[in-house]
Structure to design on (229 residues):
């Protein structure tokens, strides 16, 4: 089980801020493929990965990264702090 | 070093007066305050969302990197989340060093990094609706200056 978090418009498109996901995915990309296959709202949120960022256990990472031992995955648009 | 993430307003003047107080080895203090701007001319509010936990972690890492790169006596970052009105202070950074060059450069670095590496997202709400603020390519390009 992985805790998956969504922020900003990703959260709005999917319609929830977080969920526990039962998955055998070994990479972020595989997890994204599983989520995309679920429902239209997921497919829509993940339609353009260049518009998204991913963090693994609260560290910025990338979509090719492995999920070995990762407990928390977060998907969000590019950040706009400051 | 102090990293503060909070919903409540803060007083930049009071924060600056208290910053690095009593340290006689400081010759320069630089500060920056980010203010909510009404870009469209009809802003009713700005909503700032953040990733609690990662935010504190990312800001701390950015401050540590600044301390590693420059000779700093102290660093302060305050960043708010929640609902802002035009004119409200969103965030501030302050740096203290022996000589001004380090304090200026470190403050500049902190701003560039926390704009696109700290997990905050801004949403502008106007009478016409609401829209997420898009990240600018120039913000990402600004990071190249420091690589």
């Amino acid at each position: 089980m992985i805790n998956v978090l969504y922020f900003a418009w990703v959260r709005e498109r999917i319609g929830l801020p977080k969920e526990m996901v039962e998955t055998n995915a070994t990479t972020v990309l595989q997890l994204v493929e599983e989520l995309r296959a679920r429902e239209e709202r997921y497919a829509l949120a993940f339609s353009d990965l260049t518009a998204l960022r991913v963090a693994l256990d609260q560290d910025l990472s990338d979509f090719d990264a492995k999920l070995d031992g990762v407990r928390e995955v977060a998907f969000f648009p590019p950040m706009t702090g400051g | 070093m102090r990293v503060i993430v909070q919903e409540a307003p803060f007083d930049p003047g009071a924060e600056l007066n208290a910053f690095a107080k009593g340290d006689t080895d400081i010759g320069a203090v630089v500060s920056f305050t980010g203010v909510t701007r009404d870009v469209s001319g009809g802003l009713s509010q700005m909503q700032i969302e953040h990733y609690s936990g990662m935010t504190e972690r990312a800001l701390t890492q950015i401050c540590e990197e600044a301390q590693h790169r420059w000779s700093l006596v102290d660093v302060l970052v305050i960043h708010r989340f929640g609902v802002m009105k035009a004119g409200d202070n969103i965030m501030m950074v302050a740096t203290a060093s022996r000589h001004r060059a380090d304090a200026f450069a470190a403050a500049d670095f902190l701003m560039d990094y926390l704009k696109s590496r700290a997990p905050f997202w801004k949403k502008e709400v106007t009478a016409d609706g609401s829209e997420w603020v898009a990240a600018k390519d120039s913000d990402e390009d600004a990071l190249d200056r420091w690589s």
